[in-house]
Structure to design on (110 residues):
C-alpha cells in the first residue's frame, strides 16, 4: 500500500512539474515563433485579423484599388485595424490610423 501511494504521488508530482514548466515561455522562443519571413524578418505575424481580406473589401469601390489596398495593408499591419465599410469610419481605428500621413502630408490610410 505504501509503495503504491508513493508511486502515484511521484507520477502526480512529475506531471505537475511538466505542466508548470510548459507555462513558462522562453522569450527567445516566443520571439522567433511570432516572426515570419514576409519581405524581411521584422514583420510580425498578425493574429486575429485578416489584413488582406479586410483591405480588399475596404478598397473594392476605390478608383485605384491596388494603390488603396497597398496603403490599407501598411496601415493594417501598423495599427492592427481596418475601419468598417468602403470609405469613412477612420476614427474607429484611433489615432494610429487617422494620423498616419504620406511624404506629401496627405492621409495615408484609406
Amino acid at each position: 500500500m505504501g509503495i503504491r501511494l508513493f508511486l502515484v504521488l511521484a507520477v502526480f508530482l512529475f506531471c505537475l512539474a511538466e505542466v508548470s514548466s510548459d507555462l513558462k515561455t522562453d522569450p527567445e522562443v516566443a520571439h522567433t515563433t511570432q516572426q515570419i519571413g514576409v519581405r524581411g524578418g521584422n514583420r510580425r505575424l498578425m493574429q486575429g485579423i485578416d489584413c488582406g481580406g479586410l483591405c480588399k473589401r475596404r478598397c473594392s469601390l476605390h478608383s485605384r484599388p491596388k494603390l488603396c489596398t497597398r496603403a490599407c495593408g501598411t496601415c493594417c499591419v501598423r495599427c492592427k485595424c481596418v475601419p468598417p465599410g468602403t470609405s469613412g469610419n477612420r476614427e474607429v481605428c484611433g489615432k494610429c490610423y487617422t494620423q498616419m500621413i504620406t511624404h506629401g502630408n496627405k492621409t495615408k490610410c484609406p
Q: What stands out?
A: Confidence is low (pLDDT under 50) at residues 21-42. The helical segments are 2-23, 27-34, 51-58, 65-79, 95-98.
